[in-house]
Amino acid sequence: MPMESVLAYIGMGSNLGRRGDTLMQAVKLLSEVEGVAVRRLSQFIPTEPVGGPEDQPVYFNAAVEVAVELSPRELLDALQEIERQLGRDRSREERWGARTCDLDILLMGEMVIDDGPELTVPHPRMHERSFVLEPLSAIAPDVVHPALGKSVAEMLDDVRSGRVTPAPQPTDEQVEPASRDESDGRALLLSIIGLPASGKTTLAELLAMELPAKLIREDYEGNPFLAESYDGPDSMRLPAQAFYLLSRVSQLSAAHWPARGTYVSDYGFCQDHVYASLRLCADDRAAYESLLARVTPLVHPPSAMVYLDAEPDALLERIAIRGRPFEKAMTADFLVAMREAYNGVVEAADCPVVTVRCDEVDLRNHRPRAELIERIRAVL
Predict the structure, then answer these.
(1) Cα(121)–Cα(297) distance, integer angstroms
(2) Is residue 46, in this structure, part of any structural domain at all?
(3) Which of 38, 61, 145, 228 is most buried by its number of CB atoms within 10 A?
């Protein structure tokens, strides 16, 4: 059965070679992708580069509306293949440097997707960028951002008026700064904790760019037992939890922890026990806690944590929107119990904890995020 068609909006940019010809060729190649129909194309708008090396050529930016019968991942793969055909080599390009062709999914119907740094929809910083919003507003001013609830025209007005300002891009020298507190000769670790759908990964990605810091991402996609642990037999819960536990021990290994820099993780090691205490039966929990006691001394502790707190009802809405099948089993009662457990973790924490009500503050907006960064820097 064919997929239902959905309108998507693609941001386009080029500042190398024959920029206009490159963007037109990208539109042509896009129209040739099976399951994609090009509907509208904005004018090409010249814009100054943001961040990256100095003396870059001026960009041509545009937006294109397409009707697609593809999944978000399939659309992303198609866009990256077009970039490759037009000469882009992601493995060799400089961070925020010049490029022949840059194609990004800005919006895709009413989808809200957080599936890693390559596939986040809506684009996590589109609402801050005039070079994205200006061409998009020319073809879709009334289209509404599904997470922010604002139209493209309203978001552009926010940027032009200064109500929303773009986050500064860190320079290459800032990407790996020395720790401010190196008394123990170890890099800093900031861990983001919170209930499912509280925005841990999105915030960690943004903080990694803006602190700046290196990102440590939870390997939930690599867990072969995860789906069955929610919709299969209860016996799959311990293997799923053990996978997470050992994966986190490996990522946060004290024996291999760097001497310098700042790292931000989209999880906290402490949350492993939260899930285990709520999801494992008594016998499995005893086995898990025995393993936990053995491996906890092997883990580098966080220098500080950010706790994303929210009402369970708000998180249930987000869980429904992002549509991960295994999360459908999560109930309001489960999230209430988890919130209580997290509150206990925060009270018992051995490091500073910055608490944010993520259902009341939109941390994708630069201003509240800048305030949060100041709070973080005060405790690191």
Answers:
(1) 38
(2) yes
(3) 61
Are 210 and 105 within one domain?
no
* Co-location of 157 and 246 in the same domain: no
**Single-letter amino acid, residue 133:** L
Asked whether residue 170 is assigned to any structural domain, the reply reads no
Which amino acid does the sequence have at 244? Y
Q: Which pLDDT score is estimated for 91?
A: 64
Distance CA 178, CA 278 (A): 39
Q: 136 and 56 share a domain? A: yes
Ranges of residues in the chain whose predicted pLDDT is under 50: 1, 170-183
- β-pairing, 102-108 with 6-14? antiparallel
CATH code at position 57? 3.30.70.560
pLDDT digits (tens, 9 = 90+) for 238-270: 999 999 999 999 999 998 898 888 899 999 999
The candidate with the shortest Cα–Cα distance to 117, out of 215, 9, 227, 51, is: 215
Q: Mind giving me the DSSP string for 294-310? A: HHGGGBPPPSEEEEEE-
Asked, for residue 310, whether it belongs to a domain, the answer is yes
Spatial contact of 336 and 312, defined as CB atoms under 8 Å apart: yes
Type of residue at 212 = P
Same domain, 202 and 147: no
Is the residue at 167 inside a domain? no
Specify the pLDDT at position 179.
41
In Å, what is the CA distance from 9 to each residue of 123, 288, 366? 10, 46, 23
Distance set, CA 22 to CA 16, 17, 25, 39, 358 (Å): 9, 8, 5, 19, 41
Q: CA 305, CA 314: separation in Å to the nearest integer?
A: 22
CA distances from 122 to 53, 106, 192, 235 (A): 27, 5, 21, 37
Within 8 A by CB and 6+ apart from 324, the residues are: none
**DSSP-based three-state secondary structure for 104:** strand
Q: Are residues 288 and 334 in the same domain?
A: yes
Contact present, 98 and 54 (Cβ < 8 Å):
no
List, by residue number, the catalytic residues.
88, 99, 102, 104
Instruction: Report the number of distinct structural domains present in the chain.
Output: 2
User: In which domain, by residue range, is 362 found?
Assistant: 175-379
Task: Take residue 97 and report the two structure tokens written for it.
Answer: 């440097």
